[in-house]
Structures are given as structure tokens and as C-alpha cells.
Specification:
alpha+beta; Phosphoribosyl-aminoimidazole Synthetase, Chain A, domain 2; 2 domains; 8 helices; 14 strands; PurM-like_N_sf
């Protein structure tokens, strides 16, 4: 066995004053937020960018549009339940869906590493096209670039998506108020654990498949009950904890979660226990969290459970006046713990 070389190690959650980019800057937590706040936002400026949602809401020719872009660098390229191709489509469409938009068009940029097999590129492209067609979305434009061997990781994909926001729909964290009910659409932590299982060659007794899916149909079913949903998020990087903290901070409210009500499937709970992970911080790719006015919560929950992607939807908490900007969880033992914004990411390169 070769000697360990500490100088080659990387840390997903480094010191906050780290002078160079590290993996934690891509984790969707506090380091990512600081990168955007201190470098990108001042450089770009603009009222639209200041929305800082999963997608931007823009007006064009009298129509309200949702516009989003994303990049996908998941490793490995193929995993139980999907591939980087499915993930790129569904991840982008879900960003649009969180604005209540009906997705219409996608762009697709493939960055290919010299030496990657054409058969692999074809598999990924087929998966991308199939996922787009299944979602009723057209790939309208694209681009291809090739980088030298050793300067990529097989395939990276960049996307942009655009969709139309129906009249009367206004989903943003600033609408969240005390008394709102917090609902998740199903079991959390599945995607991140599925990626880790194949990346590290781990076996947990049963195969854990990614929950990668396009959530537009589920969101439409929810909006059909009432357009007065307050905010939606798909808890990807940083998991459910990151999404809840972002909403609490933007709305200036507190969030209380009943830990025993958060749906964590036993295989995910067991895997997280083995790996020393908290399921609240593990990424998802086919789940959403909704903040719903209390008077509509029961009807919205019923509509979610009637949809194939919301059968395990559950109420997990509520919005409160106390501790504004903070998320706390009531534990099964009767205690309370703070669910903080993650600094970096427990599982890098999961999307």
C-alpha cells in the first residue's frame, strides 16, 4: 500500500476564509452562498439576478417567463435510476417547475473529454432526448466542445430552460408567513446515497435507486388545487436542510420541523448511519418541499398523494414567528436541535 499523502487531500467543508476554490464551494451551502454574494452578484448586478431563486422570473412581450441555467458534473455518469443525461433534463425542468412554470424549451451544451467512447456519448444523448420528450419539452439549441484528455471527467453538460408562468402564480420565499405548513413530496436522501453507493462500491443489502424525475406534473396538480402556494423548492445540493434554511432566511421567519415526520426510507437511514451522514443534508433529484397556507394544506397534500411522484408526501413542520431565519427540528426524544445551513457538501459531485 503506498504511503498516504496529506497534501493531496481535499476537504468538502474547509475553513471559511479559504483563499482558493475548494469542493465545498459547489455544495449549495454557506460557501456557495458566499461565493455568489461576494464575487458573482457584485460583478453581474441586476434586479432579476437578485431574486436568487431556482429560476428567474422575467417579463417578455407581456408574458411571465421562468428562465434557468444549470451545469451537471455528476460522477459516475451512470447510476442506479438514471444517468447524467436524465439528470440534466430533470434538474433543469425542476428549477422551472419551482416557479410554477410550464417548461417549453431546453438548451444543451456537451463538454466532452478527449478519449471518451462515442458509445458513452450516445447513451447519454439518448437519455437526455428521451427525458425531454417524456416531459413534453423540446431541445431547441445546443453546443459541443471537446477538452484535452485529463482536463475533464468524460462528459459535463450545461443546460438552460425556459417556461411560461400561469397567471395568478407567484412563488417566492417572501410570501411565506407564520402558520404556513411545510410539506415534502416523498422520501429524502435517495439520490445522494444512490450516487455514493456506486461511486464507492458500497453495498447496503438492497439497491438504492436515484429519485431523479421531472416534477412539473406534480406541481401542476398542486396548483390546480390553489394557485396560492407560497414557495416551492427542489432540495438538491445541500439537501432538505439547505432549502429550508434558504427559505427561512429570505422570508425572515422561523421553521420548526418534526424530525420523526420527515420521510427517510430505512435503506437511506441505514446507509447514512454507516457513512456518518445526516439525511437532511443529502441531495434529492425528484422531490420538492412546499410552503402552503394552512387553509389549503390538506387539499394540497391529498392532490400530491394522488400523483405518482407524491404518493409518500408528508407534512413535516410549520412556519413560526420565533427564531426568524432559523430552522429547528423537534427530535423523537422530545429535544430540539438547530438544523443549520451546511458549510460545504457531504457528497460532492452528485449533480
Amino acid at each position: 500500500m503506498p504511503p498516504l499523502d496529506p497534501t493531496a487531500w481535499t476537504c468538502p467543508a474547509p475553513l471559511r476564509d479559504h483563499p482558493r476554490i475548494v469542493m465545498g464551494h459547489g455544495g449549495g451551502g454557506a460557501l456557495s452562498a458566499e461565493l455568489v454574494q461576494h464575487i458573482f452578484a457584485p460583478a453581474f448586478g441586476g434586479e432579476v439576478l437578485a431574486q436568487m431563486g431556482d429560476s428567474a422570473t422575467v417579463s417578455l412581450g407581456g408574458a411571465r417567463l421562468a428562465f434557468s441555467t444549470d451545469s451537471f458534473v455528476v460522477r459516475p455518469l451512470f447510476f442506479p435510476g438514471g444517468s447524467i443525461g436524465d439528470l440534466a433534463v430533470n434538474g433543469t425542468l425542476n428549477d422551472l417547475a419551482m416557479s410554477g412554470a410550464r417548461a417549453a424549451y431546453l438548451s444543451c451544451g456537451f463538454i466532452l473529454e478527449e478519449g471518451v467512447e462515442l458509445s458513452v456519448v450516445a447513451r447519454v444523448a439518448d437519455a437526455f432526448g428521451t427525458a425531454a420528450r417524456n416531459a413534453g419539452v423540446e431541445v431547441a439549441t445546443g453546443d459541443t466542445k471537446v477538452v484535452e484528455a485529463g482536463h475533464g471527467d468524460g462528459i459535463f453538460i450545461n443546460t438552460a430552460g425556459i417556461g411560461l408562468i400561469p397567471a395568478g402564480v407567484d412563488l417566492r420565499p417572501q410570501r411565506v408567513v407564520p402558520g404556513d405548513v411545510v410539506i415534502v413530496s416523498g422520501a429524502i436522501g435517495v439520490h445522494g446515497v444512490a450516487i455514493m453507493s456506486v461511486r464507492e462500491g458500497l453495498e447496503f443489502g438492497v439497491e438504492i435507486e436515484s429519485d431523479c424525475a421531472a416534477l412539473g406534473g406534480l406541481v401542476e396538480a398542486m396548483l390546480a388545487v390553489t394557485p396560492d402556494l407560497h414557495v416551492l423548492r427542489d432540495p438538491t445540493r445541500g439537501g432538505l436542510a439547505a432549502s429550508l434554511n434558504e427559505i427561512a432566511a429570505a422570508s425572515g421567519t422561523g421553521v420548526v420541523i418534526q424530525e420523526r415526520h420527515v420521510p427517510v426510507p430505512p435503506p437511506v437511514a441505514n446507509a447514512c448511519a454507516i457513512l456518518g451522514l445526516d439525511p437532511m443534508y443529502v441531495a434529492n433529484e425528484g422531490k420538492l418541499v412546499a410552503f402552503v397556507p394552512r387553509e389549503h394544506a390538506d387539499a394540497v397534500l391529498d392532490a400530491m398523494r394522488a400523483h405518482p411522484l407524491g404518493g409518500d408526501a408528508a407534512v413535516i413542520g410549520e412556519v413560526v414567528d420565533a427564531h426568524p431565519g432559523m430552522v429547528v427540528a423537534r427530535t423523537g426524544l422530545g429535544g430540539t436541535r438547530v438544523v443549520d445551513l451546511p458549510v460545504g457538501e457531504q457528497l460532492p459531485r452528485i449533480c
